[in-house]
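=== Structure Prediction Worksheet ===
Name of assembly: unnamed complex
Input type: mixed (protein and possibly other molecules)
Chain count: two
Listed entries:
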Amino acid sequence: MNIVNFTPISAFLGGSLIGLAVVIFFVFNGRLIGISGIASNFLTSKNNRFDNFLFIAGVITGPILYKFFTSQEINISISNSFYLLAVAGLLVGVGTRIGGGCTSGHGISGMGRFSLRSIIATITFMIVGILTVLVKNLI
Amino acid sequence: MSKIISLVCGIIFGIGLTVSEMIDPAKVLGFLNIFIDWDPSLAFVMIGALIISSPFFHLFKNNKKPIFAKSFNYTTNKEINKKLIIGSSLFGAGWGLAGLCPGPAIASLALLNINSATFVVAMFVGFYLAKLSEPTTHAR
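=== Predicted Assembly ===
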């Protein structure tokens, strides 16, 4: 194993901002941030629909503001296989709803409350994610 | 006021994903690639988020109400069951395939990337399919 592309400072700073958003949402609105829950409830439930819409709009606006104020390009590299993206998106959509959360809901909001359910969910999706990448690299 | 908070929290969250580079699927796949070329950065994202948020959960746990809402509104589900493991495993497989989870996928729509959009549409189809299947699981 080699350590590559390690950026602990920007990772920690960005993570702290994510934590700050979680705290403000909790203390002021009384809700926990879980993106899969917020996004799927926006689609399927009338409860808090406008709040959920505004939150999602904010998540999309964030990178735009970052780019505007820092004048830095945001470069990402993403698969361009339609089938891989479609299958992965479906798995993420169905899986996070059956499992009740994603990296934010279980990984941060749940683990931050020391919820055993969320700790087990996080360990599970991390292990399966690691195995998926391992198998993908072997093929 | 709760509306403004929702928007502001979304923005801070989106900036956090950008600063930490979690918005880049290659960064996430680097974190999951622990056996070959490992990029441990994502662990520091989680540590940062947990160090900031965890103390507040415990400080405000016994508060009667949040500042702009009538009551706290979040799941108290503690059940550890097959659904949790199966759902989290399906999610992990999708995460490992594309390197995208829901937050970064939605944030990356800002970059007007057609591949991000494909993933997000499929993810919303997934949300909908899971919702459709819900009544039958309750009936059992």
